[in-house]
Amino acid sequence: RESGFLARWLYVIPERRALDVYPLESLPPEAARHYGKIIYGLLDMAPDTDPEGNKIPHVCPLGHAARELWRAFHAECRREGEKSPPLLEGCLGKLPEHVARVALIFHLAECAANGTQPSEILTPVMERALALGNVFAAHIRRAVETLGDTAERCQARDLIPILRKHRERLREARAAEGMPELYAVKPRDVVRGSWAGLEDADAARKVLDHLEVRGWLRRRTVPASRSTPERRTGRDHELYELNPAIWEGGE
Q1: Cα separation of 84 and 51, whole Å?
Q2: Using one digit for the tens of pLDDT, what is the confidence trace for 224-239?
Q3: Which pTM was predicted?
Q4: 109-143: burial string, b at 16+ Cβ within 10 Å, e else
């Protein structure tokens, strides 16, 4: 995940169906013939040449309308990615480039089937590539959900090094509240610092609860001293103590 490997896959999750008999049907003869025609067409395709006659790669630019369709798809993927968990953001970030390559493959297949040279990629080809891209996008969302890459889990991972960095600061804050030598964090500490992008107490509490389940923190309730605002309002301290078995040693 951290190297970006998972984001480079195009995910397809088959629908679950109970099959009593394994399908034994062969590839239809017409499909096999058409596939063979395209492969031989690609092999027989003349290379492009420069003014001196040297062989150079074919360049297949996007036509203006096709490019605008692709740009709109790119913008939409970026908008969704900005509010998505990191793995989904990475997958969506790679998807527009996948779609561009799919459009190129469709274009080359058409050229090979028709015996024409590669040229500008036009709107109909891009529309078909985008239709397939939308299918992949739906499957990517399902795959990421299956992998368990929720925003809450990702924020929990981001919060761990922040808590480690501010360990002494948290101890000092608790000492000021009458709890000396207690390394603990409150939801409001997270919100005040906008740590891991958390700006809501309920969201911070859910992430801290997740870290407690994983053993990083221990939830505690400590009666407030008489001199603190919590005691005057009748509220106890809601704390998440840093598990000494994990956090001892600080930095």
Answers
A1: 49
A2: 765 555 455 557 888 9
A3: 0.62
A4: bbbbeeeeebeebbeebbeebbeebeebbebbbeb
